[in-house]
Design brief:
This protein has 583 residues and is α/β, with parallel strands linked by helices. 35% of the residues lie in helices and 25% in strands. The longest helix has 19 residues.
Length: 583
């Protein structure tokens, strides 16, 4: 579709310092009856001409899917032997790849047997992780293939999906580390042969097509660095990575607001039981505390927070993660191409290492939570005996759907977080994909939400917030009924849940009358996993941008997914109409 010549394309690549390592694909070649067979060789000669103009020496032939093709390993080997003779006359090579949906050849082991019988120095095999792993073929056999007969290795990961392999391949491939396939084991088998040629990221993904080319390129590089590190085979020019940062939880959450909104947010926090426990020594910044929760309200005009407020309005501008070693976390983040952030600090003030996070916000690495309060803040006396909330249970971030895989790789590459199975949540006007990330001790939970539908609450947040960001922060407590009672006594009000929901809960779980009355009266949602119980309640949205959640866990490890549709419907009823662009 390029409007220049193939020679122009080749020169553009060389001007950029790039080498074209392969030309692909050449389809439906082997095992064809006449006259198609003769036509295929003529077609191959034309493609060899094209490769000469591009200045590349390797052509990829994928296994035949034509209904006219004839089976037989010896027949296919004879075709490749003749093609090898033609390629050798031009000092070219041909690699054969088994497509997982090939008509007669869909297993790399059969493809290798064809290459072996062809017995020609210009004919080799091309291995693709998706085509081997998606059908669950064993990979140990790769180790028996001579390295000089492997012409190219292609890599792709993918989520586990119940789709036909063709649709799965064409729409859901992703970078190593973003899916569920054992790509590292595949590469380990390849490296055991002594192969040292290119690793090609062979990705087809609708999210990538719709997203930023720069972000996709960065993710591709990041995935290969992580794969090298996982295998312990880091190239000489890539320094060994520090281990993934060991996280202990959320150190603090910082809100960027105007002076007027600062007083409104402070009033809301007060109703939720937070105490003002400090003021910054040189800036218009306040510390609010409860239990092990630390929140910062920042309306300093000469600050990153102010720039964030001007762009996004009131909202979370930074999250601090408590880690074992801030320096090691920064070193790993920088090696994985994260963008570092520095801002001026006053004399004697603490500079906390930071990188750019979701939506341009900051992710701080805080080593030893509490140190920053002693250095940068004047302490204020307050009574902690009334605290009902204990910690930050989880932080939920909304983003365009095409960014989700990128931030998944970002978080799991830098921090010791593992993925839980992705869930599909029903919003009244579309579906929302939700991906939870959690550390081993469950002290840090991050939930990524994305939707391709334009009117879901997640998408509306992005519209209102002018970009990705934190949509809600959940706080944990040991007794949600007493916590909510204390909050209501201070004037707090919560999201209205319809009575129909409680009728359903009563029928589903058979809770006693007293518990059901308390849930109804307080607008608390309930879920159960085995013997585990989960209670949750939501505030109204602050400035139509973000909200808070209060949860109580009783041996429960999820996020109340069964209640999400109820909560989203209630919030949608409360939200203001979405402004539509004028024609």
């Amino acid at each position: 579709s390029f409007n220049g010549s193939p020679r122009d394309v080749g020169q553009m690549c060389r001007d950029l310092g790039l080498t074209i390592c392969a030309f692909q694909p050449f389809r439906d070649f082997e095992g064809m009856p006449e006259p198609q067979r003769a036509r295929n060789f003529a077609r191959a000669e034309r493609k060899f001409d094209l490769m000469g103009e591009l200045q590349t020496d390797l052509m990829l032939v994928c296994s035949n899917i034509s209904p006219a093709s004839l089976g037989g390993i010896d027949r296919a080997a004879a075709d490749f032997r003749e093609l090898g003779e033609r390629a050798a006359m031009r000092a070219l090579r041909v690699g054969y790849e088994a497509l997982a949906w090939g008509l007669h050849v869909n297993d790399y082991r059969d493809a290798w047997e064809i290459v072996r019988r062809a017995d020609h120095r210009s004919i080799g095999i091309i291995l693709d992780s998706f085509h081997a792993l998606a059908p669950s073929f064993p990979t140990m056999a790769i180790q028996s293939i001579p390295a000089d007969r492997i012409f190219l290795v292609q890599l792709a990961d993918a989520p586990k999906l119940g789709l036909d392999v063709l649709s799965w391949s064409r729409h859901f491939r992703c970078f190593p580390g973003q899916g569920d396939l054992p790509v590292a084991g595949f590469v380990e088998a390849v490296l055991a042969t002594g192969y040292s040629g290119p690793l090609s990221l062979e990705i087809f993904n609708d999210q990538f097509r719709a997203g930023s080319a720069v972000r996709t390129a960065t993710d591709g590089l990041r995935s290969l660095i992580l794969l090298e590190d996982q295998l312990g085979k880091a190239a000489a020019q890539v320094p060994a990575l520090q281990p993934r940062a060991s996280s202990r939880g959320v150190g603090f959450v910082e809100f960027a607001v105007s002076e007027a909104k600062a007083s409104e947010l402070a009033a809301l926090l007060g109703r939720l039981g937070f105490r003002r426990t400090g003021t910054h020594r040189s800036k218009d910044v306040e510390r609010w505390s409860q239990g092990h929760i630390e929140l910062v309200i920042n309306c300093e005009p000469d600050s990153f927070a102010h720039s964030h407020y001007l762009t996004h309005g009131a909202g979370v501008c930074a999250i601090a993660i408590d880690v074992d070693s801030a320096g090691a976390a920064m070193t790993r983040a920088e090696a994985l191409k994260a963008h570092t952030f520095h801002q001026p600090v006053g004399p004697g003030e603490l500079e906390i290492p930071a990188i750019r996070g979701v939506g341009g916000s900051l992710l701080y690495f805080l080593e030893g939570a509490g140190k920053n309060w002693d250095v940068d803040f004047e302490q204020l006396d307050s009574d902690a005996s009334t605290d009902r909330l204990d910690g930050v249970d989880h932080i939920s971030q909304s983003m365009p759907y095409d960014e989700m895989l990128s931030w998944l790789l970002f978080y799991t590459g830098i921090l010791d977080l593992k993925r839980l199975p992705q869930m599909e949540i029903a919003d009244p006007v579309g579906l929302v994909q939700s991906q939870a990330l959690i550390n081993a001790g469950e002290s840090l939970r991050v939930v990524l939400n994305g939707s391709s539908a334009t009117r879901t609450l997640s998408a509306r947040f992005i519209h209102e917030f002018f970009g990705s960001g934190v949509q809600h922060v959940a706080f944990s407590c040991n007794d949600i009924l007493s916590a909510v009672a204390a909050m209501r006594a201070r004037g707090a009000d919560f999201l209205k849940i319809p009575d129909n929901y409680y009728d359903d809960i009563e029928a589903k779980y058979g809770l006693d009358d007293a518990t059901m009355a308390a849930l109804r009266q307080n607008q608390i949602l309930y879920d159960r996993e085995g013997e585990g119980e989960f209670f949750q309640i939501y505030t109204h949205a602050f400035d139509d941008r973000f909200f808070f959640e209060i949860v109580e866990r009783r041996n429960y490890h999820g996020f109340g997914a069964a209640n999400a549709a109820i909560r989203l419907a209630a919030q949608t009823r409360e939200s203001r109409p979405l402004a539509m662009p004028r024609s």
